[in-house]
Amino acid sequence: MRTRVVRVPKIVMISLLIIAGWLGAMPVMAQVHDTLTLDRVVADVLKHNDRIAAARYMQEAAEQRVGIAGAWDDPMLMLGVQNLPTSFDFKMDPMTMKMVGLSQNIPYAGQKGLAKRAARSEVEASAQERRGTEIDLVTAAKSAYLDLHYRRLNLQNLQDQRGLFEQIITSSTGKLRANQAGQDEVLASQADLWRLESSILSAQQQVESSERALNSLRGVDPRASVPELAPPSPEQIPESAEVWVNAAKEHYPPLQRLRRQAESYSLSARSSRRMQWPMLGLSASYGIRSGFDLLMDGTEQKRDNMVNFGANLSLPIFSGRQQRTMARSMDAMQKSTEAEANQLSRDIEAELLNLYSRAQRLQKSVEMYTDRIIPASEDAYQSAQAGYVNNRTSFVTLMTYALAINRDRITANDLANELGRTLVEVTRYITDAGTWESGPQNER
Fold first, then answer.
1. Where are the alpha helices (DSSP H) in 35-110?
2. What pTM was estimated for this model as a whole?
């Protein structure tokens, strides 16, 4: 029997290889797509959180008030009749005119321009308030991300600890059958396993709570499942806290908002002082006369139309006092805001110094647990387990080492979480939210 060889065209082979490679890469692509990163969380918060949307609407409302503050008064159109006799004969009196006129108040003192600049400063203050809202929510979302990440690690550690306790139960049961241990050791190890099961239930509830908090901040359904989290990247602590302090004084939105607000009060005070000047009004009118005038030679001549021009200045006797009072009020508000900004600057510096010291301490503690304590605790348990099987180590000592492993791992996770949250809190002060206006919120 002869075997027939079928030749497959090269283009078909290449197509099959491409399809096979694509199908093989699909699980990896799905895994990458299903991994939630911290950058994706920040983008979701900026795009979908409605508190940020509300802050943007408030900024938009402030922007609409700029044009109103700098607008001139509307011109006045005048229509009427002058010097009309009671007979209502428009041709009887030569001074009878149908009049049309226009008047306009001229803000020559510059108060409108200052008011417009004050309104622009209000817009900048509103923008800083919106950025502060963004930073607060992003900071909360980052903290929730870290909470969920480390709570999931704690849950995994507790589930791993179950294997240790099951191993202890197996060892104690075997020794009981060989009359080398008492019933109390078996029961005690079983009770510890059940206590661990209770701790696992609590850890699962904490994970679910963190998932709902993170979803809410991202602007998605709190019941939606949260995919696997990408491990957070370690943040670098600078050599000096002054790096953070200087960045905070330049970028922290509440501080910048107070500065813009003080600037707005200063401009409003200057505008009020300019309004103590006399107000200038210009007017012009055109009078249309009817009828004819009789000249000396007996001929009639059509009456000429007439124009009027005028200017008036107000006497700010009473309003001037009101504007001076308003200016003094704005000055006081400016000084109050500047004082608040100065105190906030000192508070920021003190808080960042505290965060810097805390971050350094936590970083050393995390390194100590990761590099020294946990490896030593695991080696101690393995040695105690071997000694217990060979009747060289007591049951109490073995359980102590087993519980120490769980305690040390959870403590290391909690310290890493606290370190991450501390550095996240620093970003509340030093982040330049202006970079987000064309950045993460526009990503898909």
1. 38-48, 50-70
2. 0.76
